[in-house]
Protein: DUF4166 domain-containing protein
Amino acid sequence: MSAAPSLYARLLGPDFDRLAPVLQSIHDARSTKLYAGRCDIRGGEGWLARLIARLAGLPVACRDVPVEVTIASDAATESWVRKFGAHRMQSRLKLRNRRLEERLGPIVLAFDLAAEQDRIVWSLNSARLALLPVPLTWLLKCAATEAIHDGRYGFDVSAHVRGIGLIVHYRGWLVSQQGQLA
Structure:
């Protein structure tokens, strides 16, 4: 009997099978995965940008910081715990209305995903603060790209808010630490 398809396999359908093995691996149906790598983080300058980042649990600005990501999956959701140096950021992902929904504290973002062989592009479709919808016109950019960089899994995530500017921009790479799981 084969395992149930992963969250990303269900969301991307046949496009999942066309992804490069590095991208398939991080989004496969294993119940626990561990990755480690490096990351550069830029944060917003103003007090309001820092407040929004803190509310969402986003990482603070740092160059070449070690990053560790633990992904725990069940039949309906994935929990991503990211450690940027000493900073811990957690989010929960689930499939809702044919979109990937990510909860970061009280902020819930819904993304449309597009897959190509060597990358996955996340495009923001809607946002909520707790139960209140946030108009997308407030957001200039909130997107992510997953791609292969030098044979490794790479990520590039950014968020900007109209009138406030940059909230966070982090990018880096990860490699599997699967043999090091306890």
Remarks:
- The chain has one domain: 7-176.
- The longest helix spans residues 47-56.
- The first strand starts at residue 32 and ends at 43.
- The domain at 7-176 is CATH 2.40.128 (Lipocalin).
